[in-house]
Each structure stands twice: as structure tokens, then as C-alpha cells.
């Protein structure tokens, strides 16, 4: 109908449309990714695949917010695209200027009032969820965990159960009918950190000299991934989190195992001697022995964890050897020193560590 | 200042004079136009440096477990990239354009305090130099010669001596302290100039929107930079004089630093975006051939943004464990600020509506700005919803959001401003062909990078990590983001080439190449050193419209 004398007009619209298509494609792709089957054990920590009430409340609120913002976007974008196409300068050369309109009180009033109404609705919806999550009362059946952030690992203490572990958190699955949520107190031993396991809850920071609280009630067993979400220094990137949501029986079994102190009759006396007479005990603790260091992770049940160095490497004997010999090869800048042990001492030490189940 | 009248610089004139004399004139200048150009050139240099830092970041992140750079280098890169782009690119660009344009647009011969103006520029320049000297001089956690690696917001207690020994953090602190005083000087100058030096007939309600918006920006600078300066001093007292303001090991407060920083940091983003709004408010009317729609509301909305903008800062702190009422308060104020901001988008749309839009390069960039700022504002509304922010905050979603605002919004307007006012500053037009190439390449690169970047955030990728685990679904999006960064770099090179080539070979511009309506287009290109032979008198918001259309002057309708 119209001769497109100025291609740039259409070009701008096409460019805009392409941008949207890329964005939409991305969202669809991500949504597709989110449908990983449970047997994958949740490899993609997507905020749109919640498995716990706080994460689910956030998810439902976010869908509502996304719907509103999508509508606003479509309306305004359509007006922009229409204006760019319809009001482009069609005839070249000197011509009369268009009508010089300075404003319109009615229109401006309308496009002030409508956004104010949207803000009121959004605010009320948001305030409800804030209070529901932050002011949730702690039931008597809650499992209590104190999480202490360190550079660059997580300490988890269960004060009521009398357990100390590191980096891999175990919590019981929570049945909505008979809930057993986990309530965490968040502390820090050094700098700011942030506990973020997207599928279980929003993130909450661990700030030194301050006590923060959060909770989760996972509805589905499995491993959930996360990591520190507040820059805390060189190895912030490898301060990973694994949360194991266990069946009630598996959780009981895990608690029982964790309560045991280390086997005193271990035949790995040589390795234990290496551990207890070098600097290891300055930082690490092994329950029931002379090692009571708190700067580094508690190693009493080291072999019950599937990773070491806060998720930076799998817990294999090769990696354990490398970690003690040359931690910078796995996590450069971590506060674990290279222990400079002789090969014989290192072999013995590793055999001892492997008894810490 | 020399008592000689500054000669109009012709190409022949420059060749006759020894280069030392030219250099001396520029170094000792107090002329707002030259200082404006100095600010802008300074910013362009740091734009390239900051862009290299960004490229290093993107190359490192394009694959899981990449080892292009060590974590130590990476952490310095994101710290320096953020600090450079905010303090030594965006702010100097804003001050540079303000300095150049405000006197010309209000009919004045210079800024109110020319020497303070020069002082402000040289303080900013010194700040940038100090920050980058840290690469050589700042002994840090890892030995000699290291740039700060504490992040551009330098949260306590990471910045304490215990966790950041040596001096790299101090270079960050002192560089920003010094340039902060430069910013405050310029802000005082802008406020005084706009309030006291308008030409006869130019009441506040007849002032170009650029002057209004820069006035509001300058007020925000004074309100925002002061707490940052105080915090820098407190941090230095902690580090060297035995203070414990932020020293949590001795009872100090990490959250206190956050409050001080963000009460600077949030108004700071309005300091950057409001001048971008000013450029859009000058360019869109001219290329739509209509006056700005709703001038009074545009002014009122900007003042609202400035006021409300002082009350939203803790939306950067939703995850630190404030109680539910505090969080709800900041949700409310943050959502409230979306109203005047959204109104401005509608007003620009209203300006285009019914117009005769010319798709010259300045207008292309402003249309891009409108589209991208709309999206950026909407992702901002998402994060105003505190629970949603508990997921999205501190992740790549936030990084995507603020780059959408700063690059997709502010930088696009700044590019528009370059193409619009380059003819006035140099007397020559920038190439339209290269301009359109710059625009399209940059749009493609920008969207590849920053559209893709939202997704890893949603999939759990935090920010400021030098590497990440494979198998979390983050890799493909990081790769796409890196590809887009390369394309943007290419576009910037084309832009720089355009600037350099057009300076000597562009077609002559004349006084008024765009048929515009504000006073700067009434003088020659480039303007004489004294701006106006005689100070003009105005009777409306568009004095040149009145001159060109004496049968239908604006003064009849305002």
C-alpha cells in the first residue's frame, strides 16, 4: 500500500522484532531446559523449577509479575512500532511541518493513573509474599541448622542434633501434611557470603557480626545445587553448595553416622600421627581426637561427602592427594596451604583420611 | 587566563602555531567548550580500556572451567571494569556534554565558575590516573603492582586490612575520593550556571529540557557523592587510623558500608540516566519535527524521580536480612519510581506520534534507547518485587538488567548525542553511512550479549565468578554473550573511525544542519570562543522555531 521510501523505518521495526524473538527463544529454551527429569538430580538450578515453599511462593509471584510486565511491554512496544512505521517522513524535500502538539492533559492523566494502579496491585501482592516468607513461624518439628560462611567453604552445625559438617547440607524432605522444614541461622566468620540454592529458596546473605535467618521445606528428595552469591574474595566462584534432601529414614541414618566420632582403633596409626603432628590440626577437626581446629572444614566424616574443597573437585583419592599437595591446582587462592609432605607421609595420611567415613 | 582573544582555529592557523602552544592552551583552558571536549575525549579513552576489561571477562566466561585468566586477574578485571565505566566513562561523558552545551543552550558565554570547571576536570583526570596507577604501584594480596579486586562496590569487610592487605584497595578509595570532589565542583557549577546565567526572556519554564535535567542531575550529584566521600574517609580511617566503622571483627558493621554505598549508588544511576533523558528530549523532537510532548510534566517527572530516587537505595540490599517491613518499604518506593520514569517514555512516544520521523543516526539511537529502556525498566520492576529479587539479585539477571540500562539506554543516548552535536563542536558532519553501520552492528551485538545474559541468572548463575561448573545450562548463553561483545567492540571501532575520519573529511555542517530549535544552533559550527556576539533574548522554549516561523511562534501557545 505505502511505498517504503525510507527503509530505515522498516529496518528499525525488524531489528526490534528480531530482538524480541531472540529473547523469546531464549526463554523457551530455558523453559525446555528446566524440564530435566528428576533422575538427573536437578543439574540445572533454575528458579523456575522450585521444590520448596519459599521458592514456590516466589515462583508464583514471579509468574504474576512477568505477566503484567509482558502486557506492558507488548502495549508500549506496539505503540512504538506503530509510531515508527506510521509517522515516518514519507516525502523527501521541504514540506510543511506536522501539527505542533504540545501535550494533552487527559492523555497524560490517564497514563499516570494506570501505572499508579498497577504499582498498587504489584505492591500488595509483593508485601504478602514478603511477610509469608520472612515472618513464617518456626514449627517445633523444624530441623535447626547454623550455617557459617568462610572464605571459601560452608560450615554447617546442627546444634540440637550435635553434628558438625561442611559444604554438603543434608535435610529431610518435608511432607506438606506433616511438615519438617529446615530453619537456618546464617553467620559468617570473615567476609560477606550468600546462601543460594535457587530451587529451594531465595538467597540470604551471611554477614559477619550479624545473624540472618532463612528456611526451606523441600518437597522432593534429591540433590540440589547452588553456590555462594556474594563476592567474598578470590575463590568466591568455587564456594559451591550441595543440598541433599533425604527421606526421613535416610536423614536419620545420616544423622546417626555423623554423630559417631572417628574410629579410635584405626590401623592407620602412621597417617593419623602425620595428621596430628603437622599443621593439619591447626585448621581441621576430627571428632574424638586431638584435632580441634575450626578454621577449615571438620573432617570427621570427610569420606561421607561426594566432593571436596566446597564442591571444587570430586572426592576421589587422586583429588584428595592433589588438594593436600598443591591446592592451587584445584582452587587457586583458597586458604588451604600446600602441606609439603614427603611422599611417604602423604601416602600414610591419605590412607588415614580414607578411614574418616 | 590569557588576555588575548582566542583566535578562531582554522586548519591553517593551527599549522602556524607550535604544538607546544596549542597543548599549553588546552591544558590551561577554562573555556567550557574545551573542558567539555577534554572530558569527552578522556571518557572515550577509558571507554576503550573498560571495553578491553569487559572483553577479558567475556572470553574467560565463554566456557566452563576456562583458564584464559587466573581468578586473581579476573577479580581485578570486573572491579576495574565497573569502576572505570561508572566513574571515568559515564560521569565524564555526562559532565562533558553538560559543560559544552549548557551555556550555549541558555544563551551564556561560559559556565558560572570557569576556573572551578577546570579544577573539576583535572581532579577527575587525576582520579582516573590514580586508579590505573594501581596496576603498577598498588601492592595487594598477591604481591606488587595490583589493581583493586574488591568489586566496584567494595563491600566491607572484604576491604579491611585483614582481607585486602597492601594498597590496591587504597588506590580505589583515593581515586574515587579525588574524582568525587571533581564531580561536586562540576555540580555546583552547573546549578549556579543554570539558575543565574540564563539569557533575558529565558524563564525556568522556557529553558531547554537539557538544562532542566542537568540541573536536577547536579543536585543529585551533591546529595549522592557526599555519602560516598564520607564512606571512603571512614574506610581509610579503618584501614590506617585504627577505626572500626566497618570492621566486623571489632564490632563494626558491614551493613553500614552497604547503606553508605547504596545511598550513593542508587542516585548515581539517576545521575547517569537523567542526562541521557536530556539528550533524548532534545533529539526526538527535532527528528519528529514536533515539540516535546508535555514539557511541564517532563520537568515534574524528573524532579519526582530525583526525590523518590533518594529513597530506594536498599533495593540493592534486599538479601541482607532486613526485616519484612523494611523490605516492603523499599519495594514500595522502588515501584513508585517506575511511574514518573514510565511517564517519560510515554511522553517521548507522544512526541513521535503524529510527527514526520527522520531516521537519521541520532534518531536511530534514540529509538533504540526507547525500546531498550522500556525492557530495562520492566526487568527493574521485576527486581523491585523483593522476593523475586531474592532469586534474581546478585545473579547474571541483575548484570543483564543494569547493562541494559547503561549500555542499551544511556550509551545509546550518548551515541545519539555524539551524532547530533558533533557537527556543532567540529563544524563537520559525521558519516551517515558509518553511523548506520555503527548503529546496526551495535544493536545486534548488544542484544546478543545482554538478551542472552538474562538466562544464566534465571538458571542460578551468580555474578563475579571467574568460572562455573559445566552441566548447569549456563555455557551456551555465556558463549552467545561473548560473541555479542566482540560485535559490539567492532561497532565501537567503526564509531571511533567515524569520529577520526569525519573530523577532517566530513562534509561541512553549517550552523544548523538538523533544522533544530535551540540556541546552540544559532551560532557558527564550531562556535566562537565567546559563544554569542550579542546575548540573545528569547520568548519561548524554541527560540529558533520562532525565528524560522514568525507567523506561528511558540510563544502564542505556551
The CATH superfamily label of chain B reads Cytochrome c oxidase-like, subunit I domain
Strand content of chain A: 15-25%
Q: Tell me what the CATH architecture of chain B is.
A: Up-down Bundle
If strands are numbered along the chain, what order do they take across the biggest sheet of chain A? Answer: 3-2-1-5-8
Shape of chain A: elongated
Low-confidence stretches of chain B: 1-7
Note the quaternary state here. Answer: heterodimer
Order of helices and strands of chain A: HHHEEEEEEEEEEHHHEEHH
Give your account of this protein's structure.
The complex is a heterodimer of chains A (357) and B (558). Helices cover 38% and strands 17% of the residues of chain A. Chain A has 357 residues and is α+β, with helices and mostly antiparallel strands. In chain A, strand 1 and strand 2 form a beta hairpin. In chain A, helix 2 packs antiparallel against helix 3 and helix 5 packs across helix 8. Chain B is an all-alpha fold and 558 residues long. Chain B has a single domain, classed as Cytochrome C Oxidase, Chain A, CATH 1.20.210.10. Helix content of chain B is 66%, strand content 0%. Chain B contains 16 helices and no strands. In chain B, 62% of the residues are buried. The N terminus of chain B is likely disordered.
Amino acid at each position: 500500500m505505502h511505498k517504503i521510501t525510507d527503509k530505515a523505518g522498516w529496518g528499525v521495526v525488524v531489528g526490534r522484532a528480531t530482538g524480541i524473538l531472540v529473547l523469546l527463544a531464549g526463554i523457551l529454551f530455558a523453559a525446555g531446559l528446566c524440564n530435566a527429569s528428576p533422575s538427573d538430580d536437578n543439574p540445572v538450578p533454575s528458579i523456575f523449577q522450585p521444590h520448596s515453599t519459599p521458592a514456590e511462593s516466589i515462583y508464583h509471584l514471579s509468574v504474576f509479575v512477568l505477566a503484567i510486565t509482558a502486557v506492558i511491554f507488548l502495549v508500549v512496544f506496539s505503540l512504538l512500532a506503530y509510531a515508527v512505521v506510521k509517522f515516518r517522513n514519507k516525502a523527501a524535500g521541504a514540506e510543511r511541518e506536522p501539527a505542533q502538539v504540545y501535550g494533552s492533559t487527559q492523555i497524560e492523566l490517564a497514563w499516570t493513573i494506570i501505572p499508579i494502579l498497577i504499582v498498587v496491585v504489584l505492591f500488595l501482592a509483593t508485601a504478602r509474599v514478603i511477610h509469608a516468607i520472612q515472618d513464617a513461624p518456626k514449627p517445633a518439628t523444624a530441623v535447626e541448622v547454623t550455617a557459617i560462611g568462610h572464605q571459601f567453604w560452608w560450615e554447617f552445625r546442627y546444634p540440637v542434633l550435635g553434628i558438625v559438617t561442611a559444604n554438603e547440607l543434608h535435610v529431610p524432605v518435608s511432607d506438606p501434611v506433616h511438615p519438617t522444614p529446615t530453619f537456618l541461622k546464617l553467620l559468617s566468620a570473615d567476609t560477606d557470603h550468600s546462601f543460594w540454592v535457587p530451587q529451594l529458596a531465595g538467597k540470604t546473605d551471611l554477614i559477619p557480626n550479624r545473624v540472618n535467618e532463612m528456611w526451606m521445606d523441600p518437597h522432593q528428595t534429591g540433590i540440589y545445587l547452588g553456590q555462594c552469591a556474594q563476592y567474598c574474595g578470590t575463590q568466591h566462584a568455587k564456594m559451591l553448595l550441595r543440598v541433599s534432601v533425604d527421606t526421613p529414614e535416610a536423614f536419620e541414618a545420616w544423622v546417626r553416622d555423623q554423630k559417631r566420632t572417628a574410629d579410635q582403633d584405626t590401623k592407620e596409626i602412621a597417617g593419623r600421627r602425620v595428621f596430628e603432628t603437622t599443621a593439619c590440626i591447626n585448621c581441621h577437626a576430627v571428632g574424638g581426637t586431638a584435632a580441634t581446629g575450626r578454621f577449615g572444614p571438620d573432617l570427621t566424616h570427610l569420606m561421607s561427602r561426594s566432593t571436596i574443597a566446597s564442591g571444587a573437585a570430586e572426592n576421589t583419592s587422586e583429588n584428595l592427594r592433589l588438594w593436600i599437595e598443591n591446592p592451587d591446582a584445584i582452587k587457586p587462592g583458597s586458604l588451604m596451604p600446600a602441606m609439603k609432605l614427603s611422599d611417604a607421609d602423604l601416602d600414610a595420611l591419605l590412607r588415614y583420611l580414607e578411614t574418616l567415613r | 587566563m590569557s588576555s588575548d582573544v582566542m583566535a578562531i582555529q582554522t586548519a591553517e592557523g593551527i599549522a602556524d602555531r607550535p604544538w607546544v602552544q596549542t597543548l599549553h592552551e588546552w591544558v590551561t583552558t577554562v573555556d567550557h567548550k574545551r573542558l567539555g571536549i577534554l572530558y569527552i575525549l578522556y571518557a572515550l579513552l577509558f571507554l576503550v580500556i573498560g571495553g578491553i576489561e569487559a572483553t577479558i571477562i567475556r572470553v574467560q566466561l565463554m566456557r566452563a572451567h576456562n583458564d584464559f585468566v587466573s581468578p586473581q586477574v579476573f577479580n581485578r578485571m570486573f572491579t576495574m571494569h565497573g569502576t572505570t565505566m561508572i566513574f571515568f566513562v559515564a560521569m565524564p561523558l555526562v559532565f562533558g556534554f553538560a559543560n559544552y552545551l549548557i551555556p550555549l543552550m541558555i544563551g551564556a558565554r561560559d559556565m558560572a565558575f570557569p576556573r572551578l570547571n577546570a579544577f573539576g576536570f583535572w581532579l577527575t583526570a587525576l582520579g582516573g590516573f590514580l586508579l590505573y596507577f594501581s596496576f603498577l604501584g598498588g601492592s595487594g594480596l598477591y604481591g606488587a603492582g595490583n589493581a583493586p579486586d574488591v568489586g566496584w562496590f567494595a563491600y566491607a569487610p572484604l576491604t579491611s586490612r585483614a582481607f585486602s592487605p597492601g594498597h590496591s584497595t587504597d588506590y580505589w578509595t583515593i581515586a574515587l575520593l579525588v574524582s568525587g570532589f571533581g564531580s561536586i565542583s562540576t555540580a555546583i557549577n552547573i546549578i549556579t550556571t543554570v539558575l543565574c546565567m540564563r539569557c533575558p526572556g529565558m524563564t525556568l519554564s522556557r529553558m531547554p529540557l537539557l538544562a532542566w535535567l542537568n540541573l536536577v542531575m547536579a543536585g543529585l550529584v551533591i546529595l549522592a557523592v557526599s555519602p560516598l566521600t564520607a564512606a571512603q574517609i571512614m574506610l581509610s580511617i579503618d584501614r590506617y587510623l585504627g577505626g572500626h566503622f566497618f570492621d566486623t571483627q571489632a564490632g563494626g558493621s558491614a551493613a553500614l558500608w552497604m547503606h553508605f554505598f547504596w545511598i550513593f549508588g542508587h542516585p548515581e544511576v539517576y545521575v547517569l540516566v537523567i542526562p541521557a533523558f536530556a539528550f533524548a528530549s532534545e533529539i526526538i523532537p527535532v527528528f519528529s519535527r514536533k515539540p516535546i510532548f508535555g514539557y511541564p510534566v517532563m520537568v515534574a517527572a524528573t524532579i519526582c524521580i530525583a526525590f523518590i530516587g533518594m529513597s530506594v537505595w536498599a533495593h540493592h540490599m534486599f538479601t541482607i536480612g532486613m526485616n519484612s517491613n523494611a523490605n516492603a518499604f523499599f519495594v514500595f518506593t522502588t515501584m513508585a519510581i517506575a511511574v514518573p520514569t514510565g511517564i517519560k517514555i510515554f511522553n517521548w512516544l507522544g512526541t513521535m506520534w503524529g510527527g514526520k520521523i527522520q531516521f537519521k543516526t541520532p534518531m536511530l539511537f534514540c529509538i533504540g534507547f526507547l525500546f531498550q529502556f522500556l525492557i530495562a525498566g520492566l526487568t527493574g520492576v521485576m527486581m523491585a518485587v523483593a522476593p523475586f529479587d531474592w532469586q534474581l539479585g546478585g545473579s547474571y539477571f541483575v548484570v543483564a538488567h543494569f547493562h541494559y540500562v547503561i549500555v542499551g539506554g544511556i550509551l545509546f543516548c550518548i551515541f545519539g548525542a555524539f551524532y547530533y552535536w558533533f557537527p556543532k563542536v567540529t563544524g563537520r558532519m559525521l558519516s551517515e553511512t558509518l553511523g548506520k553501520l555503527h548503529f546496526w552492528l551495535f544493536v545486534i551485538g548488544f542484544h546478543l550479549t545482554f538478551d542472552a545474559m538474562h538466562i544464566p541468572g534465571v538458571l542460578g548463575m551468580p555474578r563475579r565468578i571467574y568460572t562455573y561448573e559445566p552441566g548447569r545450562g549456563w555455557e551456551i548463553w555465556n558463549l552467545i554473550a561473548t560473541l555479542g561483545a566482540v560485535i559490539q567492540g567492532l561497532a565501537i571501532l567503526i564509531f571511533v573511525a567515524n569520529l577520526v575520519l569525519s573530523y577532517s573529511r566530513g562534509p561541512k555542517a553549517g550552523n544548523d544542519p538538523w533544522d533544530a530549535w535551540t540556541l546552540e544552533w544559532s551560532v557558527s559550527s564550531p562556535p566562537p570562543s565567546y559563544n554569542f556576539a550579542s546575548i540573545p533574548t528569547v520568548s519561548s522554549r524554541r527560540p529558533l522555531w520562532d525565528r524560522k516561523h514568525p507567523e506561528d511562534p511558540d510563544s502564542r501557545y505556551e
